[in-house]
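REQUEST FORM: STRUCTURE PREDICTION
Request ID: SP-0412
Submitted by: Lab K.M.
Chain count: 1
Length (residues): 277
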Amino acid sequence: MGPFIIVIILVSGYIVTRSFLPLRYRIVRESGYHIYLRSGLAGFIVFIISFLSFVIIDIYDLPSLLMNILNIAISDIPHFYLMEDEGYKWGLLLMLCILTSALLHLSFNIYYRKPSRRFKTLIKIVNPMERILFDACANAYPICITLDSNKVYVGLLETVPPVDDGRIEYLRMLPLLSGFRDQNSLTINFTTNYYEHYRDGELDKSSEWLTLDLFSIVIPEREVVSISNFDIDVYKKFLSQGYTNSNGIYSPADTYNQPPSSFTPTQDSPVAAAPHS
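STATUS: Completed
RESULT:
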């Protein structure tokens, strides 16, 4: 009976941790005995709730009350004497444990079905990099991504990465600018302004298949070195103040990098209709 009880507790705990978003976020990033410990702790809490429910049922004799309401006599129930058996009571308690975990699982799924609730819950527990991605996607802020090849992309995230199912593996974004970082100073040199192509009519409205989705890029998370928010006006102001290289030599802004054109979306801009869900 002992091993069977432990298995029921672990299964009940696992059911709860898969639906309770804060626990799910942590458990999908762990392995080995950590998963068993978290599942065991959640299952033990479910077992305690079930035990208290069982005690209340026993104290108030709810089965007899239900039988009186349904006008059922004890003699009408075959093998009623088995209900007094100790093993039967343990079985009933474990069934109540599974039922409680199933009800909690259903309740959490219904509660987190609303995207805004999922977002508000996850934004409190995600790591700093994921928080930047969540904020940028929710508010349609451009972000700057530096890859291990020193390639730089500035763009808009198209979807919130599914962090509750595991670690982020890919980032899908609509690029606005791209370039590279200088190997010595690590300053950004932009070489391509995608937004100007979007704005100046590169997207031919007569072509049904030519949409912004075709310009999206997918970046593997393992290649990402850094992520930061990006504001074009702040960047242009920073450049206008000049730049001091790694040797301490000051250079005017116009000798090393020109700021790109502003890419603030307007009402009739194709980027204004880009997905940011």
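NOTES: The chain has a mean pLDDT of 77.
Reviewed by: T.R.
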